[in-house]
Amino acid sequence: xNNLTMREKFKEIFSREGEIFFFAPGxxxxxxxxTDYNGGHVLPxxxxxxxxxxxxxxxxxxxxxxxxxxxxxxxxDADTRELRPDKKYGWACYPLGVAAVLKLRGHSxxxxxxxxxxxxxxxxxxxxxxxxxxxxxxxxxxFSHLDLTGPELAAVGQATENDFIGVxxxxxxxxxxxxxxxxxxLLLNCETLAYEYVPLYLxxxxxxxxDSGKRRGLADSKYNQRRAECQAxxxxxxxGAKKAFTFLGEISPEEFELYAPLIEDExxxxxxxxxxxxxxxxxxxxxxxxxxxxxxxxxxMCASHASLRDDYEVTGPELDALVEIAQNHPAxxxxxxxxxxxxxxxxxxxxxxxxxxxxxxxxxxxxxxxTGYTAAFYPVTASEGARPIEPELMEAL
Length: 397
Hints:
Layout: H1 3-14, E1 20-31, E2 41-58, E3 62-67, E4 76-79, H2 93-104, E5 111-118, H3 128-144, H4 150-165, H5 172-179, E6 184-189, E7 195-199, E8 206-211, H6 223-238, H7 253-259, H8 266-290, H9 294-310, H10 317-328, E9 332-338, E10 345-350, H11 356-371, E11 376-379, E12 387-389
Parallel strand pairs: 3-5
Antiparallel strand pairs: 1-2, 1-12, 2-5, 2-6, 3-4, 6-7, 8-10, 8-11, 9-10
Helix pairs in contact: 2-3, 2-4, 3-4, 3-5, 4-5, 6-8, 8-9, 10-11
């Protein structure tokens, strides 16, 4: 898709000229999985693929939306004064939810015509939903002249997921999409929202996303169940702890060792153990990246996947096969599932870019032979967060 095609499609659909191009990236979480809604740490980076929009403001308070990823349409036409969750809107529930949340928070929201197009595979775990949410938030911020920071836009996106989509997600996805920086990962404390950027000093090494081809619907998965299990584990700890904890992520490994006997249910014990250990791994991984200790970083990635497989039980046979194959390649420093799980993507750390082609070919061939699924590969380039862009920056794909 290029800027000329977007302009032509916009005029064809909305019978007017589009005015401003916008872009919001997807994200890959390098480590720190299922810790976000538990008040722990995460280490994501924004990526080069994402969601584009061409938009123009309206004076009548209406939002007219069309996605080139769903060319059969129809165009969605909604009044910003009467926005409610309604499954009839399909994909447009995300942008409409953003407008509704902004209004609920007291902001005056102008109307807009918006044409969307994205190159993120839906359901792959690269945060296509957060990408379109924050993209819409940037558009409405621009047209409505709202004074909102990146973290504030992230909170709007999270509220959209929670209240309009029905997924009780944490804030990680929206935060990195709104606040990403080129060449940097972001270490985020999901309880306090304190964050710092971690340079990706990879040397000759390279990160790559591997799409398993196995799709999952997050709202229909066991994601909400895992969150409830973590809350139950926290309640068990608080029933006998000397102090009350708000999140599992607040609990140190030493405190967990002390209070773990309070969790009598074996399943709840496993869920809590993953969160405590993953939080520690994430902090260690951020230090390893900052100091260029790439072997340590790769080791922590592998340990993360084992914990997600055995304690949190969110991987599945396809992701496990893909990660095992990737880890066994001689050029691999580490690999793990990334995202919510139950399908989606893995992220792998390869020793050198020169070995990437052999890595891709052998992993793809063995994965297809073992599962029947075709893997897709996306190199990781840490990107800047959501923003208006010049037309020339539209990818010609």
